[in-house]
Each structure stands twice: as structure tokens, then as C-alpha cells.
Amino acid sequence: MVSLLFILAVSSTISLRADVSATRVEDSAIENFFLLTANILSGATPENEQAFAELQKRGVKTIISVDGAKPDAESARKFGIRYVHLPIGYDGISTNRELELIKAVQSLPKPIFVHCHHGKHRGPTAAAILCMGAENWKSTEALQWMKQAGTATNYSGLYRTVELFRVPGATALRTVTSDFPEHAKVSTMVEAMVSMDERFEHLKAVKKAGYKKSESHPDVDPAHEALLLHELFKELLRAPDAEQHTAGFLQELKVGEQTSGAFYTLMKGETFHGADADAAFDKMTQNCASCHRKFRN
Question: Among 113, 152, 189, 210, which residue has the fewest nearby CB atoms (within 10 Å)?
């Protein structure tokens, strides 16, 4: 396991070389948008045509998504950009996926924009691998970049991936196809977790607005969104492959079903106290944090 002291030491004592710098793009249509090199950019999922237009303006030719969600390849094509889908988890990047990422950065048109959902954890890790494989970054510089991007240190698998990464040789890369998919097949669990994350982001905005429709998502009905989240937990517990998971994981899902159900009951009521809603929301958040700590990080 990566030593937390090592990570903190890197962040406090190592500065990027003069030719290695990551610049945050302010006032961008893309969340957590950074320019790492002339060829590598990093950020969150492009969510609208304004975001794709911004990437086009910066000359981006290829987008690599490491998120589990299906990429909007159709919108990217409108702006002359190719989408490649190489999803990774929060526990680190497999050796085979590392090979695919390096093959991609060596063979696909550049500049390349790499993203996850929020552009803070998985995306910056993949960007670090690309820069180590194609831009001569050292592991210390890559780890420093991850800290700058906001990659949480409790995702030890992501930091371990970068610390242990070694640039693969030509022989290993020849085993990897260059026929990269626009949409990779992902498991039911991954797709459900992506949807849960989206629902939770909407409900955070609802909570901030006093459990009413928020200005950021005026089309989101609080009760309906809470119901969708509750149904996702129920569907996961009913999924054909549910029995493949550990008893501990299934128990966390059951708690999630209960806490999301309680929150939905409040949201669909005509009247409720804000303190009750806060307490129910906090229980959902605690359940998510507990499950992530045990099974995702």
C-alpha cells in the first residue's frame, strides 16, 4: 500500500520541473479543467456543446473517458473529436488497462483530453499515466499533479498505480489492439454506481436549495430523484449477479435501500421538518462513505 507519509512528502517537497506544469483553466465550461502539457489535458465529463466547443477550440482531437458512464460520442463527432472509452475503477488501474492507455497516447491523434466524472480522482490518475508514458514525467511529478488536481489520498490504489508504474516496452505494447471502443461494455454494478452518483449530485443541490428544486437543476423534482436513487438500490439487490458479491457488500446495499427509502418518504410528503430531512440525508451519506471505504477505495 502506498505510504500516506510518502504522498504527503511528495506534495510538500517536490516541485514540478520547469518544463512540467499543470495549469488550471478558469471560467471553463468543464469542471476541474487542467492543461498538463501541449498534448495532454484533464478534467470532468464534457456535459454540453459549450464544453465540446471549448475542447475543439483548444485543438483537442481525442477524448479518453475513464469513467464508467457511456460517453457522448455523438456530440464529440459534431466537433470533429474522437471518443475512446477505457473505464477504470477507484481501486487502481490494471496492467492491461495501463498498456491500453499508453498505446492510445502513442497512436491516437493529439491533443488528448482525459476525463472521469468530476475530474478529480480517476481522470487525473490516467492523465498521470499518459504523461509518464509519453511526456517523460517522473512518478514524483505525477503524484504532485494528482495532489494538485485534488485526488483524495484515501484512494490508495490510484496513488499506488502511479508510484509503481513503469513505461512498457515495445514488445508488451504489440499485444494491445489499437481498435479502441467508443463505448466499452461495463458491468451492471458499474452502470448502477454511475447512476447513483448522478442522483446524489442532484440531491446535494436539492438539499442546498432547502429541499426544493435547485437553480442548477430546475428540471429535477426532489421526490422523483429520491425515488430513482431508492430504486437503484432495490434493483442492485435484485440483480442476477447480486449473489456474487460478499455478504458485507450486500448488507451495505440493504442499508442503502433503507436510508434512501426513508429519505424518499420524507421528500414525497407534503410537509416535513428540515432537520428531519438533514438527518435522513446524512444517514444516506454515511452509508455511501462506509461502503466506499470498505469496498471501493
Answer: 210
